[in-house]
Amino acid sequence: xxxxxxxxxxxxxxxxxxxxxxxxxxxxxxxxxxxxxxxxxxxxxxxxxxxxxxxxxxxxxxxxxxxxxxxxxxxxxxxxxxxxxxxxxxxxxxxxxxxxxxxxxxxxxxxxxxxxxxxxxxxxxxxxxxxxxxxxxxxxxxxxxxxxxxxxxxxxxxxxxxxxxxxxxxxxxxxxxxxxxxxxxxxxxxxxxxxxxxxxxxxxxxxxxxxxxxxxxxxxxxxxxxxxxxxxxxxxxxxxxxxxxxxxxxxxxxxxxxxxxxxxxxxxxxxxxxxxxxxxxxxxxxxxxxxxxxxxxxxxxxxxxxxxxxxxxxxxxxxxxxxxxxxxxxxxxxxxxxxxxxxxxxxxxxxxxxxxxxxxxxxxxxxxxxxxxxxxxxxxxxxxxxxxxxxxxxxxxxxxxxxxxxxxxxxxxxxxxxxxxxxxxxxxxxxxxxxxxxxxxxxxxxxxxxxxxxxxxxxxxxxxxxxxxxxxxxxxxxxxxxxxxxxxxxxxxxxxxxxxxxxxxxxxxxxxxxxxxxxxxxxxxxxxxxxxxxxxxxxxxxxxxxxxxxxxxxxxxxxxxxxxxxxxxxxxxxxxxxxxxxxxxxxxxxxxxx
Length: 594
Hints:
This protein is of the alpha+beta class. The protein has helices at residues 2-7, 10-75, 78-83, 91-102, 133-136, 139-146, 193-199, 235-244, 280-328, 346-406, 409-426, 435-452, 478-488, 522-530, 536-540, 550-563, and strands at residues 109-115, 121-123, 126-128, 153-161, 164-175, 185-191, 210-215, 220-225, 253-257, 260-266, 272-279, 432-434, 457-463, 471-473, 496-505, 508-515, 568-574, 578-586. The chain has 16 helices and 18 strands. The strands form 4 sheets. The chain has a 6-stranded antiparallel sheet with strand order 3-2-1-6-5-4. Strands 8-7-11-10-9 form a 5-stranded antiparallel sheet, sandwiched between helices. Strands 13-15-16-18-17 form a 5-stranded mixed sheet. The chain is flat, with a radius of gyration of 46 Å.
């Protein structure tokens, strides 16, 4: 029986499960993912070569944008414009035209030829008269100029220069007079090797892949790469590239031809094909190497798992058994029986969390005892406070009667305001009062302060009638108003103004208190505006033994407890406009409209 229990113990189960967990998932993964990995890695490799094709056309398009500017500089040249006029140029003017031809410098230009509308050719500091453009231009260039009003055309062609044929990529453009209606001249610019090199810039040329720029007729303009192979790009590849080209310029397609994977895209004008030709073995090589590495890794992982499971199971079994024993005997009272294990695994975190839980339970029990004690004290004080106000009201009524008998109207007004303030402050133990009562409370306080500080300030209260009966937390405006008088008017003898404005906006009640007193110090202003984003203790300690803030701290604490993060209190203070405190609190959905 003992051996049977040991077989089903945690240690041997762990060994068996570890072996199964290693062999089964790895075996399934090896079978299922082999094809997927081969496909994904191959697609990734295809994407890399496709990206190279995009780089080529991107480099081409960047240079193409500058070619219009290059040829435009010839058009606007005053000497070239003069050469297009009807009258023949003087020899010195022709020399200036020839110099102007070479003035616009471009790093991709090998040479330029300009043929005006009178049959004069300007080239390499030479001026040749009575030239027939057809003797220089090829049939392709002539056709391109015939259908082109005044745009720069980029094309691969051959020109007859000094009796010799010169092939390459040319910029051709009709040069027209900007003011006179005369026949145009012809500008021919041949692009140099830097143009071809820049097309293949940032393309890995030290690979078996061949990169090429090809015309639509299958003429290879330039090519690079092909390290380790001598094969040319076959006609079959060029034919299929034309067939497979996408409708959208710049989009790269790939296809198979002649045991190679080919990538092709074209420019926006459809003049050139940008081609990458890669042997299939090169494309598939990373996938095969990855699968070999994966298979070897899986085999080593299985062997390591089988060997290590026998050695690592013992500390796990001991730790789990210890945790199970202590937790099963926990009765809620033995809070000092902690778990002590060290396995350098997640089990250590379980033990630490369990020990923290014990300490937390102990702390919670202490807090519950303190809270219960505080609740009893508060209940007692609440009963006492229900008695004291009656005595205070009766006393104030007697003082009010005596003051009225003596004809002291100031004392009568003072006692009336104080009595109403006390009644609203206590409000039968309720935490919420109507907005009307809250404003009455502020009004009574301001009346008292006006009596205490004669001629110091005047006040104004504006409120929307429709929200007077909406319930809000009590005594949130009086501390703000108190700070206006106590600190805003500290340096004033008279002329103070306080305005209280309350309105509803977008489901919120907006309470705004403004005064024309002294400007707040920047550090005080910053603390006041950040209090609502702090914890309770930080709010209470925001103004330790400093002026301006104890009452506001109390207001912010109560609003945080009531509304969480759904309220806002914000101060602004400027020399020109004074200080404004704005409080936004949500309006209760079931608030009664007055």
